[in-house]
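Weekly sync notes, structure subgroup
Attendees: PM, AL, DS (notes)

Item 1: joint prediction request from the bench team. They want all two components modeled as one assembly rather than separately. Inputs as received:
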Amino acid sequence: MFYETHWRSIIKAVSWRIMGTVATALLVFIFTRKLALSLWVGALEFTSKIGLYWLHERVWDRLRFGKKEVRPAVIWFTGLSGAGKSTIADKVYRALQERGLRVERLDGDSVRDIFPATGFTRPERDQHVRRIGFLASKLEQNGVTVVASFVSPYEESRQFVRGLCGRFVEVHVATPLAECEKRDVKGLYAKARRGEITNFTGIDDPYEEPTRPELRLDTAALSLDESTLRVLQYLDKQVLRVS
Amino acid sequence: MFYETHWRSIIKAVSWRIMGTVATALLVFIFTRKLALSLWVGALEFTSKIGLYWLHERVWDRLRFGKKEVRPAVIWFTGLSGAGKSTIADKVYRALQERGLRVERLDGDSVRDIFPATGFTRPERDQHVRRIGFLASKLEQNGVTVVASFVSPYEESRQFVRGLCGRFVEVHVATPLAECEKRDVKGLYAKARRGEITNFTGIDDPYEEPTRPELRLDTAALSLDESTLRVLQYLDKQVLRVS
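Output from the run, pasted for the record:
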């Protein structure tokens, strides 16, 4: 709940008063051609109306009528490890933040840092994604736009999340497996190939491609900046319009 | 992010203009004693300033200065099954909602309905409470006050949640076990005694009492309305003050 401080109302009253009084004095002068009279009316108006204006502001701050909120959404990035999800999501997040939007960032790695006990078996991953989806939907219901990036490899889990959310934008960061493995930023593909880690998506656990994502980004063909722009353009056109 | 609709600005301008023009016309009349002149100045002022005022409103809507938000908090009800947590929490939630606060309600039963796979062993309960705490903290960080009611029997899990939140208000609904078992609203104590359900708090799983809760409610001595009032009074004094 936002409310306006008394300082805001006072300074707004002064700001308006300067505009208003100049206009009044000018009008009186045009009609009467008496400079002294115009200035007197102006001076009296200035002092009396500044108080009235302040009062008017305080009453209006209590009225909800016509105060609208930008409708939030859940922007969900899915894709293989190393596909570029987090990087693009970070850029989208900052761009939305700069517009003054209330926005939250949820990332697979950082959430797992807080919950180290979360496993990688199918039921564990499924529950994990569902719970994050529930969190995202609760934020959305409370006016917060969510930028989430999770491997989220199972179609069923993502559909569950879609069902919870009001406006769900599924962004498939569709970097091919070969490209992700070539990059191997965190060295995880090598470990998975050596069998040092198991249940690794793309190697010994499936990635179920989204059947109808709102957006599909081929980062082998698009740069990170181009990908970010695609997402923002989509959001501007389809999702975050201010009516 | 809130923004003001054009309608709000226009109607506010009219509302102010009626006050302002009456004041101006009166001032001109007091100085000149000419009724016709006063009405003419008033009429011209009315038409010219309504546009100026509207413009002024649109510019101010862009300025963040002096727009403050009520600081949110996480109000966490803990206690045995049947202690009265949900009922008191519901009443607190509605009271805060009526004040126009942005507030979310999280309840053990309804969250478990969405996540039926959540178990009742110590690690499962611990993880469950931690995850709910994470959700609550994310809502709080985004300006939402959270009213949560969970058995949350382990001190360690609750301390973890406290650590995540900015302003954590732990409310121990301290109804004695004997009283809860006597009520047995959902018939769960009987089932637990018969061994039909296991890991039931108070019977075959411990309830670790909060060591230093912000509030302790003895619902054996206090009615539900009195308990609710205690919580609201505490929040008004310690937590939700608007500076």
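Discussion: The two ends of chain B are 21 Å apart (CA to CA).
Action: AL to compare against the crosslinking data before next sync.
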